[in-house]
Amino acid sequence: MIKRFTIVFLCLITFCFPILASSIPNLHSEGAILIEPTTNTVLYSKNGRSTFYPASTTKILTALLLIEDLDLEAPITKTIASINNTPIDSSHIGLQVGDRYTALDGLYGILLGSDNFISYDMSLKAAGSMEAFVDKMNQKAKALGATSSHFVNPHGYHSPMHYTTPYDLSQIARGAFSNPLLLQIAGTPLYNFVVQNTGTTISLKHTAALLDTSSPLYNNHVIGVKTGFHDAAKRVLVAKAHFDNIDLIGVVMHTDAPYQFEDMNTLFEYGQTNFSLVQTENFRPYIANHSYSPWAKPYIETALSKAWITQTTRNYTDFITKRELIHLLKSSLPAAYRLILDECITYKEDSIYAENLPATRQQLEATLLHLFNTLALPPREIFTQKKSCLSSAPTPSQEVFLYTLTDTQSMGKPEMSSSPDDYLTYEEAIAIATKISTLVQCYDQSKLVDNEYPYSLPILNFY
User: Residue 324 and residue 358: Cα distance in Å, rounded?
Assistant: First the structure.
């Protein structure tokens, strides 16, 4: 006796998932990156490996070397050499040739006042020659993991050969901000710089609005920051923020004011909302990803527990490609059925490119239709008021029936329209994979009978 089975095909074209809880940052900056420094995990990247000019954010690398090489009480003098070898239009705090100050105050002049002449004089003091100091900069950068960068001066004044990437700059910042003194200085909003030979003080105010309590861009979580600017680099910003659940380092490059500060705040909000630094039972740190919508949590937990997916920093509300979708569905199926989905990926002409584009709801429906037809499920139809994303109405010869879910109110979101060409998100695909996995398991175990009413199946209850 041949058993008959009923399978339900979920038409996503008319199913509406809840509003995205964790949107991916939409930044003005052409290059950006966000990392968690303890694990050195990249949480977000936009052109992260592309080359940009660092401008005065170069000075965090300079300051790190100066802290390592100089006595903080060592006397420094503004020299005529700095005037002759530093472009005259460089930023400065107003020192005159012959003015003396301590190395510690010089660090504040570099990181708060962004003084290029102080950068020159202190680098010369530390290494004996500018060539030697620049060599140390490049060696240190590579040691910190910045392997696609090259520096030719200690202050960041523009040169075509003075460049870095958002990723490299994040690695330099990770090393620099791990130094407690450098982090303290870079997080100081105001400082009184003492000119020792005159006994006068120069009031320094940090150039970053993130530290200015009177600014609408102020961020009380920021504990270290360095700005940068020249015409070719545009606005550049490097910052570190501390939250109860995670520390973050952000880099934004090549944008206009005040977007460097807005983008950094956007990155930090994204990071602390979607990720946490936690520990395993063996006290090993790892990043917990919370970037899914509330409704998706049980599906993602199931997928992780069954190893269909791995721990990742990818945003679950991002779009999934067709290739990734097929891999996910295959992972969720019993081994005997995985080969069925291999036919959904071809390697002809431009398909390799096409399979790496975001998957649409129509492509998902076609993929599941292929799966169900291959399993030789008997035909059955349920007519609803809404239409499938199939190009024509189903016929009795199709060995699948369509079931459209309409109650989205109980998931906490008003119903929204969608179309066959709408892209599928990672979390939506995981939810569907979970349902299909359970459904196929029931089919495999002969638990579905032909006359069973589909609405009674708890595995189909999305809401």
Answer: 9
Q: Which tens digit of pLDDT belongs to each residue from 225-252?
A: 999 999 999 999 999 999 999 999 999 9
The fourth-level CATH superfamily of domain 31-278 is DD-peptidase/beta-lactamase superfamily (3.40.710.10)
Question: Sorting pLDDT into bands at 50, 70 and 90, what band is 147?
Answer: very high
**400 — pLDDT class (breaks 50, 70, 90):** very low
DSSP tag of 460: G
pLDDT in tens, 63-92: 999 999 999 999 999 999 999 999 999 999
> Band of the pLDDT at 448, cuts 50, 70, 90?
very low
State which H helix or E strand residue 341 sits in.
helix 338-342
Residue 79 in tokens: 């020299």
| Span 155-176, pLDDT tens digits | 999 999 999 999 999 999 999 9
The helix (run of H) or strand (run of E) holding residue 205 is strand 200-205
Residue 348: how many other CB atoms lie within 10 Å = 6
The rounded distance, in Å, linking the Cα atoms of 401 and 243 is: 50
Q: Kindly state the greatest CA–CA separation across the chain.
A: 104
CA distance 313 to 290: 9
Task: Confirm if 394 and 381 have CB atoms less than 8 A apart.
Answer: yes
Can you give the C-alpha Rg of the chain in angstroms? Answer: 29
- Inter-CA distances, 265 with 287, 360, 407, 417, Å: 20, 32, 37, 32
Kindly report the length of the chain: 463
Q: Which residue intervals of the chain bear CATH 3.40.710.10? A: 31-278
Tell me the C-alpha distance between 117 and 80, whole Å.
10
Burial label for 214, CB within 10 Å (0-12, 13-18, 19+), is exposed
